[in-house]
């Protein structure tokens, strides 16, 4: 059952990632891979929030936590695409853009993840007064 939920979540995350890529290519015409960057930053924040608010505080059943964290967010974010896009930037001579992409992804990803953790903790403490509620 857990595998099915993770798989279903994976489908949702992959489709969301695909549509972020389409959406970003409509409004930007740059060599910077904004679609992957955007998905990875959103995913970093949400996974930080989910880990603090839902997984650590056991707000939902572990199967649902896996469906959200591993399924949806795991397939929404993409390290492999980030890696390929970075290599493509290097191969086409865009070294500065590749370096910018790597540094921004690393620093912003950590910042977004940290912000998600902080927001999840703050929300959890203010909403539940520190108590657990399992759905």
TrEMBL record:
Binding site for Na(+): 74, 77
Keyword Lipoprotein carried by entry: no
Entry's localization field: Cell membrane
Residue intervals passing through the bilayer: 5-24, 30-51, 63-83, 95-117
Keywords, alphabetical: Cell membrane, Ion channel, Ion transport, Membrane, Metal-binding, Sodium, Transmembrane, Transmembrane helix, Transport
Known catalytic reactions: fluoride(in) = fluoride(out)
Membrane-protein topology: Multi-pass membrane protein
The keyword Aminoacyl-tRNA synthetase is assigned to this record: no
Activity regulation, short description: Na(+) is not transported, but it plays an essential structural role and its presence is essential for fluoride channel function.
PANTHER family: FLUORIDE EXPORT PROTEIN 1-RELATED
Biological role: Fluoride-specific ion channel. Important for reducing fluoride concentration in the cell, thus reducing its toxicity.
Family recorded in the similarity comment: Belongs to the fluoride channel Fluc/FEX (TC 1.A.43) family.
The protein's name: Fluoride-specific ion channel FluC
Gene: fluC
């Amino acid at each position: 059952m857990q595998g099915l939920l993770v798989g279903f979540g994976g489908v949702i995350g992959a489709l969301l990632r695909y549509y972020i890529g389409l959406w970003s290519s409509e409004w930007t015409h740059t060599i910077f891979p904004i679609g992957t960057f955007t998905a990875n930053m959103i995913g970093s924040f949400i996974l930080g929030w989910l880990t603090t608010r839902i997984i650590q505080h056991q707000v939902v059943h572990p199967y649902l936590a896996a469906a959200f964290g591993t399924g949806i967010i795991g397939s929404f974010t993409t390290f492999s695409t980030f890696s390929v896009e970075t290599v493509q930037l290097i191969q086409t001579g865009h070294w500065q853009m590749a370096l910018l992409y790597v540094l921004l992804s690393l620093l912003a990803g950590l910042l977004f993840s940290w912000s998600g953790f902080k927001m999840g903790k703050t929300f959890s403490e203010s909403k539940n007064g520190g108590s657990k509620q399992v759905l």
